[in-house]
TrEMBL record:
Organism (species): Russula earlei
Domain of life (superkingdom): Eukaryota
Lineage of the species this protein comes from: Eukaryota, Fungi, Dikarya, Basidiomycota, Agaricomycotina
Protein name: Het-c2 protein
Length: 204
């Protein structure tokens, strides 16, 4: 075993070509991010994990159905356009929103070393998902933000080797995490721009 970020595919390693973002690699990296919530060790974040997982399933189902038309996320969305129910397009849209929320929260935490995770996740929620949620869902997320673990505990788990090996050094973790988040931020921004340019987000 190894520290968590060494065990999952980094968004920095997701291939991006002129044709778009590699679908299979992106989904694998997204699954790695979902697992990150296990380190937060809070049942309140179950709603976030379940939403991310459900949307990953929708996108993967479309890829499995027509892989040659879905090898990049952009092609997947373009080729679903015109169908009555664009499940993968909607799933990817919400997946991007959830990834943006998590990415922003961790970027805020990285930029403010003295700030607790509850503050960072609260700020990220206000800047991302909150605009799309009704009163009830906002309440659920409010509880989740308050249930964040202490910053020190989370980063200790992120550095730890579950098998009992040496923990990652702080410098290594920060370099790895910042690279991971920068790549994720770039992918989310790229795809959100793509959605708006093609009006793929209309109706959702």
């Amino acid at each position: 075993m190894a520290p968590y970020l060494d065990t999952v595919l980094s968004f920095a390693d997701v291939p991006i070509t002129d044709a778009g973002v590699d679908t299979v690699a992106f989904l694998k990296a997204a699954e790695g991010l979902v697992g990150l919530f296990d380190l937060l060790n809070s049942t309140a974040f179950g709603v976030v994990q379940n939403d991310l997982k459900g949307n990953i399933v929708k996108v993967r189902a479309r890829y499995d159905e027509v892989p040659t038309l879905s090898d990049t996320l952009e092609k997947l969305v373009e080729n679903e356009k015109g169908e009555k129910k664009r499940k993968a397009t909607e799933g990817l849209l919400w997946l991007l929103r959830g990834l943006q929320f998590t990415c922003m929260a961790l970027q805020i935490a990285q930029a403010n070393a003295s700030e607790e995770l509850s503050v960072a996740f609260g700020k990220a929620y206000d800047g991302t998902l909150k605009a799309f949620h009704n009163f009830v869902v906002k309440g659920v997320f409010s509880v989740a933000m308050k249930a964040c673990p202490y910053r020190a505990d989370f980063f200790s788990k992120l550095k730890a080797d579950p098998a009992g090996g040496p923990a990652a050094a702080d410098d290594h973790l920060n370099e790895q995490l910042n690279k991971w988040l920068a790549a994720l931020d770039g992918i989310v921004t790229r795809l959100q721009t793509f959605y708006k340019a093609g009006a793929h987000d209309k109706g959702f």
